Amino acid sequence: MTTTGTIGSLIGESAPRNEDHRLLTGDALFVDDVHLDGMLHVAFVRSDYAHGYLRHVDLSEARAHLGVIAVYAADDLGDYWAPGPLLVPPPPIERCEFRSATQVPLAKDKVRHVGEAIVMIVAESRYVAEDAAALVEVHIDPLPPVATTEGALADGAARIHEQFDSNEAAHVVQEKGDYEAAAAGAAHRIRRRFKMDRGASAPMENRGIVANWDEQGGELTVWDTTQAPIPIRNGLARMLGLPERQVRVIAPFIGGGFGPKIMMFYPEEVLLPWAAMQLKRPVKWIEDRQESFFATTQEREQIHDAELAVDAEGRILGVSDSFLCDTGAYNPYGLTIPINSQCTLLGPYAVPNYWSEFRLVFTNKPTVTPVRGAGRQHGVFVMERLLDLAASELGIDRAEIRRRNYLPPDAFPHDHEILYQDFAPLVYDSGNYEPALDKALEMIGWDQFKSELRPAYEAEGRSVGIGIVSYVEGTGVGPYEGARVTIQTDGRVCVTTGVGTQGQGHFTSFAQLVAGPLGVTAADVDVITGDTAKFNWGTGTFASRGAVVAGNACHAAALAVREKVLMTAAAALGADHEELEIADGSVHVRDAPDRAISLGDLASLANPLRGAVKPGTEPGLEATAYFGPEHGTTASGVHAMVLEVDRETATLNILRYVVVHDCGTVINPMIVEGQIHGGVAHGIGNSFYEQLVFDEGAQLMNASFMDYLLPTATDVPHIETAHVTTPSPLNPLGIKGVGEAGAIPVAALFAQALEDALGSDVGEILEMPLSPNLLFKLLHGD
Amino acid sequence: MLIESEFLFSASRERVYEGLQSPEILAKALPGTERLELLEDGRYEGEMVVSVGPVTAARFQVSVELVDLVEPESFTMIVGGKGKLGFVEGRADIRLEDRGDECLMIYRADLGIGGRVASVGQRLLDSVGKAMSQRGLKAVNKMLQ
Q1: β-bridge mates for residue A223, sequence order
Q2: For chain A, what is the domain count?
Q3: N or C: which end of chain A has fewer CB within 10 A?
């Protein structure tokens, strides 16, 4: 692989993944691989009740148990006990009431969801810790639980946080234009109630923490399955009263993040480091799968009462929406999810008038924070379903009604006149939607399906439907990320960044961005992520922002190093800067390949010996750069599917699945496709398999993979993908995010394709997820 | 979980009513109860071992209280159980009617479980709850002979 005059030319190549060798040979370090001398193990006693007063905790038997080192309840934490931070305060929206109640390290006076931690046991082994946990006597006086979203605001509902006069965590209204005036003259007004639930993130690796306090070195090291090592470091330092230099947080390889691992601070994250310092011994806690269903945040239900007003041609005059959103027992993530729903509902469409109101409510269920898509699914489901209903009422083709309402390519930047979750106005930086629609129609064979395939399927007695939906995704939000690029004396390049990595292929994508300008291959670049001792500044991996924000920082640092390489080489080779070319790991004079020097030798030269240093000399072929976008960049896409339903068994078979997406510049198509495939699989789960089912006591009834259905390999079809590229003007490389895109429109697509397959037998599908059981009931009655 | 059902005892109404006040027979009516003692205050306490689906031999400290006693017509049974894997609580309204020499029990039980046992066993308990209650009453019927 060579680069000559052009730089960044590795962008767009499906370079093989640098990390795969380590992952596939078992050499990648995960938190549970950390074993330290004298390490202790932690188990938690968690609440069996969804709501109740915590009257008394008897720790005496547990403390006396052989092998138990320490047992802590809330009162044992002293001044260290404090509710967690409000991570995202509400954006400055004019009509916004907000009440914040954040999670606590250990429940003190009250328990507010099943699985809330009450007691921490530290013991010589996890077995002993679990045995001792069973010896703790917990006395809870149960209170009536708030078990449903709608029940939260019902008259007489028990108040979960007694300092507030109701369970309403927020009430927000955002508005553009005048919906009522616009709707008054509408040819059609379509009004429905929509419900959409989400589920657990179900990563392959649950959460885990190892903390070690090195008394001699005065350093606390924490291995944590977090998506945000630097903010965790900063927060722990503050809580523990240490300067930041004395805290090192390492987020090593992580088996999937999907959002809940950027929640800060989980009780365990606060408690383990503290216990390590108290006991002066390393401590470890690895979440088990059942714990994960309660102790890791999840995403859940919204109920929308929405109306779409269209003219006689199906052009959108406006949308009105009022929705309820479940935030669970606490709301550390503020309004992120409902604002994402509110904003993403607008989709790729011109919506001149919009009135949107939501109420965020506390319930006695585990805390809700973003899971891949983060509320965008709910908004997309509402808008896409409304358009389907309008198309059917008007007798317009479902693809055509979308085409008629797309923002045209010259409409950008497009200001939606409401605020987005990143506190900036909802402005789409760029987009070009019709080409993606055309491509998807062509790939799925939309016209041919209608004219030839559908009659053929019907003749065979098969129920097969087709669907097509559009969506946008706000990605790549600020504030910033940074990267440091260094050429080492062996000629290898090292790039270090603050973001954590959970399987996104950062070791390859970032390498490609750096390798191009420096004339090496992606395999010549070592990527270091997620260790606060290696890079001091950054925010984290979330909101489909890694490639956009950290990627641009990596590339900028590589360009700065390229300048240093050329300067050093010009002096070494006695040539002009302009005469030099970088390729194959060395610099040579154009048309004189013999006059060359390797990057490794240049790195040695750049570390000057005594006497060679002039004022202003900086050693090393090294540079650090930061990138912070003005606001998020809007990716978009179209998904289409052909779906067969077995009416007898109510099972589904996806015959075709097509994704055409636009994430701006594609760094590595193979990795982008991998992200899309994973997202679609997640979306299939959220459409037909995954649902957290609570009973009237707010007890979760399916906290295991026996009962919580994840789609398996046989449920995920071959996915055909195509790229449309509309570069973002908001960053030098034109990148948009893609991490969540695959998951966002899938439920809306399922609903449409199912209705198409089953016709009037199934009625309108206004609720997601469905399940084999629910679909059976829709088809055959109870 | 709501269980509404009935059971025909081959014993008189008085015999059934009286029998169900005794700890040995009451224990039989609650499947999984290993031990039940009558305390001085009229409550019963004991131990129950429940296996549901993947939960095997979950041990609960159980307490039973019989209230609103109308001899020999009806009473309400309040059950509470606590163990390492969660809790069980519920109440059952029980009515006894003469059917010739026999006695028909009409019962309506509202049972809730919580904690770990609920999170993996509830769905299964829902489907076996009625059968379990009938099994218990069959055993009672045998003892009353």
Answers
A1: A210, A250
A2: 3
A3: C
Nearest Cα of chain A lies from the Cα of B40 at a distance, in angstroms, of 24
Parallel, antiparallel or unpaired: strands A580-583 and A586-589 = antiparallel
Q: For residue B60, what are the domain limits?
A: 2-144
Assess if residue A265 is contained within a domain: no
**Contact (CB, 8 A) for A687 and A775:** no
- Give pLDDT tens digits for A147-201: 999 999 999 999 999 999 999 999 999 999 999 999 999 999 999 999 999 999 9
**Chain A residues inside the 8 Å CB shell of B120:** 290, 703-704, 706-707
Identify any residues that bridge with A721 across adjacent strands, giving them in sequence order: A659
CA distance linking residue A214 with residue A445, whole number of Å: 63
**Cα A131 from chain centre:** 36
How far is residue A574's CA from residue A580's CA, in Å, rounded to a whole number?
Answer: 11
For residue range A276-316, list pLDDT tens digits in order: 999 999 999 999 999 999 999 999 999 999 999 999 999 99
Look up residue A716 and give its two tokens.
């995920």
For residue A92, the domain's CATH number is: 3.90.1170.50
Residues A119, A132 contacting (CB under 8 angstroms): no
Maximum Cα–Cα distance for chain A, whole Å? Answer: 89
Q: Provide the residue range defining the domain that includes A156.
A: 40-160
Q: Which CATH number do you get for residue A721? A: 3.30.365.10
Distance CA A118, CA A105 (A): 8
Facing residue for A706 by CB, picked from B54, B87, B116: B54
Does residue A721 contact residue A661 with C-beta atoms inside 8 Å? yes
Please report residues of B whose CB lies closer than 8 A to that of A47: 115
Q: What is the sign, positive or negative, of the torsion defined by CA atoms of A289, A292, A293, A294?
A: positive
Residue A287 lies in a domain: no
**Shared-domain flag, residues A723 and A647:** yes
Count of CA atoms in the C-beta half-sphere (13 A) of A359: 15
- Give the phi and the psi of residue A339 in degrees, each rounded to 5: -70, -35
The region of weakest confidence among A609-613, A763-767, A771-775 is A609-613
Output the domain CATH number for residue B88. 3.30.530.20
Count residue pairs from A and B with Cβ separation < 8 A.
52
Of B53, B114, B119, the CB nearest to A290: B119
Please return the burial class of B81, using the count of CB atoms within 10 Å of its CB with bins 0-12, 13-18 and 19+.
buried
Q: Does A290 touch chain B (CB under 8 A)?
A: yes
What is the SS3 string spanning A17-45? CCCHHHHHCCCCCCHHHCCCCCCEEEEEE
H/E element holding A250? strand A247-250
Sheet holding A525-529, edge to edge: A525-529, A493-497, A481-487, A622-627
Q: In this predicted structure, what is the pLDDT of residue A7? A: 54
Handedness of CA A330, A334, A338, A344 (dihedral sign): negative
Please tell me the number of Cα atoms within 13 Å of A586 on its side-chain side.
13
Among B84, B87, B123, select the one facing A701 at the smallest CB separation: B123
A134, closest residue in chain B (CA to CA): B84
The full DSSP string for A457-525 is: HHHTT-EEEEEEEEEEEEE---S-EEEEEEE-TTS-EEEEES---SSS-HHHHHHHHHHHHHT--GGGE
Neighbours of A312 (CB within 10 A): 9
Structure-block tokens of residue B92: 């059952």
DSSP string for residues in B71-124: TTTEEEEEEEEEETTEEEEEEEEEEEEEETTEEEEEEEEEEEEETHHHHHHHHH
Report residue A546 CA to chain centroid gap: 10
C-alpha Rg value of chain A to the nearest Å = 28
Whether B116 sits inside 8 A of A48 (CB atoms) is yes
ipTM: 0.88
Strand partners, A654: A643
